[in-house]
Structure formats: C-alpha cells, structure tokens
C-alpha cells in the first residue's frame, strides 16, 4: 500500500527493522520479529509494542523508504502485508522511477518528484473509494489492519476505530476497537497473547454505558450470553453513540424491514460512514423534538437570540434549519420553541448589517427577530432561496416590520386557516368533527360545566393573543400548564393537529386523503376484512358510532390508511384510537393524526409483533425500578405490569378510562409524546401503591387497577350523560371514591415531570435490542420444538444448526440490499418461514456440513439436494427442510441414505442441463416484482385456501416406502453411478469402493438383460453393449455428465431398460465396503464446530 510520504528518524530504527534490499534512492526493510528468523523474545516485544502504539507495522511488517545519497532524511512511501506485495511495489519503482531520477540535479528535486508521484498514486486509488474520510491516511492504515486481523470479506465497510481496554475477567487488554457496518471487532497483542473478538451487531442483546468501583465508565455489550466491557475510551460518549447507531441500523435492516424502508439515508450498507451516522442521529433527534415529517433532515444549526414579545426579552437558543422548516429551541431553561414552515415565510429582512440580526416575516402579520447570528448573511440568503424570496436591499427596521413584531398576532382570525392550505374535500368525506354533529354546544346553556368550559376557551384565546396561533405559535411552559388543566372541546382538534405536526403533513399534501379514499374504495384485503369486523366495536356506546355517519367515516379513514401503508395495514387498537380522533377532528384531519401517531409518535406499535409497545413496556419497567422502589421490593417480577399496561400504551388509556377522561390523556400525549403515558402510568401505580403491595396474587392486583380506572372521572366535562361512558363493572360508585383525571394528570407531572424525553428515547434504543432478540429467541425455540419431533439431532445440536442457518441467511444480506433471502424475510410469516435460504446460500452452508468431505462435484450435488427438499418449488428452503435432509445424511440408516441419493436422480432432483439449472436458481426470486416478494402483500389478501391445503397435505401425508419410488432409467442410473464415484473420491478406501460400485453396476445390468430376454425372447439383444456397460470404470464416467447423457439418449429408446430401488438396494447390500462407508457415524459436534469457524472465512475468501 502506498503511503503519504512522511519523514522518519532512522537513527534508532535499525534495532526494529532489517534491511533486505537497497539502492541509491530506496530501501526495502522488514520488521524485526517477522518473516524468516522471526519469533522468540524479539518478536513478542516488537509485536506488543506495535499493537499498543497502533503501529502499521503490526499488520504491514514490510516497508519501502526513500532517501538521497547526500541526505540523512528518510521518507516512508509504502508498506506491505506480505513480501510479494512489497516486492511488487519495489519492482514498480525500479521500472518507472529509477530511470527518471538520473536527470535531476539536486536532491530536493528528486525528493519532490518521488513525493509527487506517490501522492498521485494515492489519489488514483482514492478515486475508487466510495466515501471520503476525515483523515484518509490514518483511515487507510486502520483499514489495512482491520482487514489483516479479522479476515472479513472485502465488502465489509469499516466505519471508525478507537483505542480502548477490553476486560477479560479482571484483566484489561489494551488494544483497538473497530466498528464496521456489520461487526464489532477488538484486537490486542500483549507479550505473545493475542485477543481477537468479532461480534455481529445482530447478535447483541444489550448495549449500555455502565460504571462500577473498578471501571469508572465503560461500555457493556451482551452477546451470546457473554458480557464484554470496553473502557479507557478517550471519547466514550461519541463511541457509544456510534455503536448505538450501528446496532440500531442492523436491527432495522435485518429484523425490522418496515422501519428500515423509511430510512433512505442508510439504504446502502457500503455507504455507511461515521459522519453519516452522526448526521442521521442528529436529524432523528431534530425530527422527534419538533414533530417534523420523516423526510426532513437537519442541515444547519446557528446559535442566536430570539426576541420573545410576550416576555419582552431575548432568549438564547439555536436555530435549526431543514429542507422545509426553520425551528428555534431555547437553551436557557425557558422551554420555549417555535416551528416556522418555509411555506409561511413571506419575507426575510436584515434590519442592520452591524447587528448581525435578521427578521423573518410570516403570514398573518407575524414576525420573529433573531439577533447575534454569527453567519446571518448566509442564513438570510439560504432562507430566501428556500422560500423563493428575492433579496431586498439592506435597510434599518421598517415601520412595517416593527408593526409585525408589536402586533404579533393577526387581527383577523380567518388568517389562521392559511396554515392548513387544504383543498376542497370530496363530498363523500365528512367535513365536521363528529362531536360537533352529535353534541353541538348549547350557547344558551349556562350550567357550571359549560361556564367552566367557556373560561378554558377564554384562557386559550388569551394565550393565543400572547404566544401566537397556528403553525408559528410559541410553545412554552405556560402551554403545557394549559394542557394539563384540560383542553376545551372546541379547540381540541385544532391543538391535536398542531402539537402532533399533522397540520404540516396535511398542508403539504392537499387532496391526498381524498385520492386515497377513492383508490381504496371497494378494495378487498385482509386489512379491510378486519376493519369491517371491528367497526361496530369502536366506542359502541357513543351515539356517533351508532349511526352510519360515524361508522362510514371510521371505515374510510382506516381503509385509506391501510391502503397508504400496507406494511402496517390494520392492527387492533387502531379503530379505538381513530374513533376518538374522529370525535374532535374533521375526517381528513383524523387521517393525518393517525399517520402522525402510527409513523412518528408510536413507531412500530401497530404491526404483528407490536415491537414498539413491547419496547415502551420495557422502558416503563425501568422507570418503575427507578421511581417506585417499594413496589419493586414487593413484586420482584415486573412482567405483570408489562401484561397489564399493554392496553395502556396501545390505546393511550382510551380502553381503560371513560372517554371523557381519556381525551385529557390524549391531549397530554400529543404535546409530550410517550413521556406523558409513562408519567401517567407511574402515577396510577403510585396512587395504588399500598393496595398493590398488600395484594396476594396477580388477579387481585388486576382487580385493584380496574376498580381504580372505574373511579376516574372528569368533573369538568361538558358532555351529556348519553355521550359519557358508563363505568365498567362498578355500579356502586357511591361506595367508592372518585379520582378526577385533571388531578391525576397534574400529580403525574408534578412527581414525574422531570423525566426527560431524551432519556426515554435512549432507553427505547437500549431496550429495543433486548426486545428484538427475545422475540428472535422465542422464534428459535418454537422452530426447534417443531423440528426436533422429526429429526434425531439433540436440542443443543439443533440450536447450533439454527444459528448457522440464520447466520448464513444474514451473510447474504450484510453487503447487499437485493439478496433474495432479505427480500423475502417477513416477520409476519410463520416461524418456520421467517428465515429461508436461496440456492447460493444453501450451497455454501451444505458444503460446510456435508457428511462426505471428499465429494468433488459439490455444486451439482447441492443443486439436486436443493431441488429435492424444496417441496413447494419456490426457490427457498426453510430450516425444517434443511434439517430433515441433513438428518437423513447424518443419522439415517443405510437404506434411507441410499433412498435419498436415489431420489436425487429422479425429477425434480436430477436435471440434464445442470449449468442452466444452477444459473436459474441463482437468479430465482431476485426480481422484486415476483408474486412471492411478500406472500402476504402488505397485509393484503392471504391465500388462506393454499395454507389450508398445505396443512391438510401434511396431516394426510403417509410415510414413503421403497415400493413407492419410481424406476430409474438408463440415463439416471449412469448419473447415479457417477454420483457414487464422486462421493468416494479421495477417500482412503477409494479403490475398494470403486470396485464395489463397478461390481454392483455389472450385476444390475446383467440382471436387467436376463429379465428382458425372459420377457421378450423373440427380440434381438446386444450382449456386447451390456457387457461393455457393465465393465464401466470410474475413468469412463465424465463428472460433468451432460454430453454423455445426451449421447446415451438414442440408446435409451432402443434398449428401454430401467431399475427399481429394490434391485439397487439388494445389489449394494452385498458389498460390505459400501455398507460400512454409508453406516459410518458422523461426528456431528465436530462438524458444527468446524462450520461455525469456517462460515465467515468462507465468505471472505470468495
């Protein structure tokens, strides 16, 4: 490898380097302790020194130096891993550089010329590189070490590396941590003791920062049941964030494809860089905080002051700019932030060039003044270009701008509607919230509840007059206080749209919902069937859903969303949530609120495995341990709370609280996200602490919580009794105390409001690894339980086999996005179908596990086996099919093994044109347009009849006997004999086995000849031909077999002879050498161990 020329001190280097070649201008050296004469104490000391100091010499023990005769300065210009590599560089210098150097007069010119040439070579190599690293030279050297030490495939992309200590028990090993796209690797070499660790990200169960008495701060990694600790990191937080990103990336790409498809920035595993991961993490945090669409990315961050008119002072914070939004968040503890869509900006002014300030004017006579912006000129130009505003000449703040700032709120309330930007809705779509239709407010009704409702509205109107209304409203502590007290019925839909960010989705997609409704109308899928089944179960006690108006609106929203997002389609609990949204929001608004909840606020909640809900339950358990230690002491098993709280998270407490109380919880959720649900859950458990501690079993605890939820009321709700929900299972309310929902929410914020959203997101990432791996482990146990009933492998052997099978599936996915196995991995399928191998992956794994290690025609044999065990002919083999075939070859009787080989040469196993067949299977199912891309097309209509027929066939399937096998014809028999010869090739008993096969072949042919003579005595025979066939030897069989088979075809029609399996079996049983060969036991444990070690290396060597 050519190196950027660096000056080195050679005075003391002779102790560590040995010169092997030199001339007038170059020196080739070898590191002492390597190569011939290496090892011993010198080798140990030099190797340890190289590892600790991160020396390139550890993996590149050869180098070339440049010098001139009249100078003592040496320049390193190349290094090499092997002698062949460095000699190749040396020869290039001799042929291309040496002759040119003689024309220069001075040493300085010679050195400059050599350095220029070397830099040119490096630049040429850099052009083929996919990405540019921050320090290309250092990174190239690190990548060289990474490739040398871990022998991973060349496609594996190194992301970054760090110096650290790895703890083996209580002993630290100083070395280097390498983080790549698919693996976490560590290498250390101290005094002859080499430590090498390779863990794939998809095997990690837990990743967290820890500290204890010995390790002040370290990173804990749990994989394969083993704990690994890394400490002494210079940038521990940075390292942890990168590791967290890579683990999350691997989980999304390999296990959770639905989430991964929403991450276009990380679509190519070969393009992942440290810089890209950091940018992705910041963009993700930015979108989460400001509730922005997934398409937005954080482009620029500027520190500045923002003039806050309601407080009359400048607040310090950061301007965050994305493609379509300008956002500001304070950093002085005022919890103030504002979101300005670019579509709302009408002008960008620079009041005074000396003040480094700019004013952003938005619709509705509103303006925001930013000051002390370091790069205000560039920011102003960027904003103008993104908003399509032409630059205006600089001038001092005009009276118009000052008027905007003073009159922060528009005088005309109708201007607020500009934020939505919606088109005329279809006549079929409801344009009113259902609560407005079924419970219109009575203006003349002046009962205490309505008066309190009017007071709430007045409080919010005052808030709007001070802080703004619509998309450019300021969010402050006062906003949260008003939310906690309760949102007025009339403003609930508008505020839900604003707080969730759904208002921006709706504004940027005018007419989208109407088009979806028209397109999805009349479609029939599994999702629509489930929707129809659940329509009348959605708030059945509410008048709105006892009429066709409410039911039709609910049907349209759910069907449109299932059509928009077929990966989710429809999931139970979505109907309950959507019903509540339709009560307070217009139909189109309810649709966009559902989009915000399912795709941003509650990611991965609404799918078959409800991963998001399980993750948040794990977060909830962590918070219980932290905030309710008394409860933890009494109930050590917190899984009870996970099962009880599932409905809390899935329905936002709507399913357990009366509707008039549940909507207050939904208010808080749209403002604070999942943090509000976690806080309320803690408050509920805290409220019932004494009762829960005194209960004796889970059933009693469930009863206590149900009674508590029945007692929760909303004393301020203006809804009439016909709309309010009756308490479930508690008719004697008078004998039970009541809890007001506003008081419960206020208590939750007072006690647990210090829980930060950032901590919740971090806990989500940490627990997601454990949840995913637990689900994967459950899948494995279920598969093993099913397969173990049909094979002779032990449970531990099946466990190792499953890990190998799954790893082979992933090896086809690590470095590409178009792998057939990855395209067809669907977690919604049955356990056995989740991981399958195409022919190429199967061929590799079978070559590692095949019982006949001396087989020469592996590709052909693998193809036949693949075709035979692929029962449904879909080009994919599942774990059960793989294990049954392997079990036959490992543990089957002589008869079963022979029957398996016999069936390989019958259709569909055997095929004449093997080359074309192999190519066919390599290309099979690669196209994403095939019907099998997803057997369940986006949770669409499943072919249930096909599944039922398959199950029926499995139930009725009887065990195959040897009499059921068809006869084998001449061409197939010749190929069968060749297969036997190939299996024996290289075996110590090869000669005796060959003779045995030749004897069996001769005997069978003579038997067939005699049989034909007895049946057709008048027909002419050709004994010479038979005798010639009978004396066939291994040399006469061409292992490729294709042209011999074609030549034999004319004879087939003339002779028309064949053999039954009984004849072949009887003949082979007479040969003890053959019987002992096939009945020889296979060391399964050793085979599995060898395959585990060789699996990754085999991929690397390809």
TrEMBL record:
<protein>
    <recommendedName>
        <fullName>TBC1 domain family member 8B</fullName>
    </recommendedName>
</protein>
<dbReference type="InterPro" id="IPR002048">
    <property type="entry name" value="EF_hand_dom"/>
</dbReference>
<dbReference type="GO" id="GO:0003094">
    <property type="term" value="P:glomerular filtration"/>
</dbReference>
<dbReference type="GO" id="GO:0005829">
    <property type="term" value="C:cytosol"/>
</dbReference>
<feature type="compositionally biased region" description="Polar residues">
    <location>
        <begin position="1037"/>
        <end position="1047"/>
    </location>
</feature>
<dbReference type="InterPro" id="IPR004182">
    <property type="entry name" value="GRAM"/>
</dbReference>
<feature type="domain" description="Rab-GAP TBC">
    <location>
        <begin position="486"/>
        <end position="673"/>
    </location>
</feature>
<comment type="subunit">
    <text>Interacts (via domain Rab-GAP TBC) with RAB11B (in GTP-bound form).</text>
</comment>
<dbReference type="InterPro" id="IPR035969">
    <property type="entry name" value="Rab-GAP_TBC_sf"/>
</dbReference>
<comment type="function">
    <text>Involved in vesicular recycling, probably as a RAB11B GTPase-activating protein.</text>
</comment>
<keyword id="KW-0677">Repeat</keyword>
<dbReference type="InterPro" id="IPR011992">
    <property type="entry name" value="EF-hand-dom_pair"/>
</dbReference>
<feature type="domain" description="EF-hand">
    <location>
        <begin position="857"/>
        <end position="892"/>
    </location>
</feature>
<feature type="compositionally biased region" description="Low complexity">
    <location>
        <begin position="1016"/>
        <end position="1036"/>
    </location>
</feature>
<dbReference type="Pfam" id="PF00566">
    <property type="entry name" value="RabGAP-TBC"/>
</dbReference>
<dbReference type="GO" id="GO:0005509">
    <property type="term" value="F:calcium ion binding"/>
</dbReference>
<keyword id="KW-0343">GTPase activation</keyword>
<keyword id="KW-0106">Calcium</keyword>
<keyword id="KW-0479">Metal-binding</keyword>
<keyword id="KW-0963">Cytoplasm</keyword>
<dbReference type="InterPro" id="IPR018247">
    <property type="entry name" value="EF_Hand_1_Ca_BS"/>
</dbReference>
<dbReference type="GO" id="GO:0005096">
    <property type="term" value="F:GTPase activator activity"/>
</dbReference>
<feature type="region of interest" description="Disordered">
    <location>
        <begin position="1011"/>
        <end position="1049"/>
    </location>
</feature>
<dbReference type="Pfam" id="PF02893">
    <property type="entry name" value="GRAM"/>
</dbReference>
<dbReference type="InterPro" id="IPR000195">
    <property type="entry name" value="Rab-GAP-TBC_dom"/>
</dbReference>
<dbReference type="InterPro" id="IPR011993">
    <property type="entry name" value="PH-like_dom_sf"/>
</dbReference>
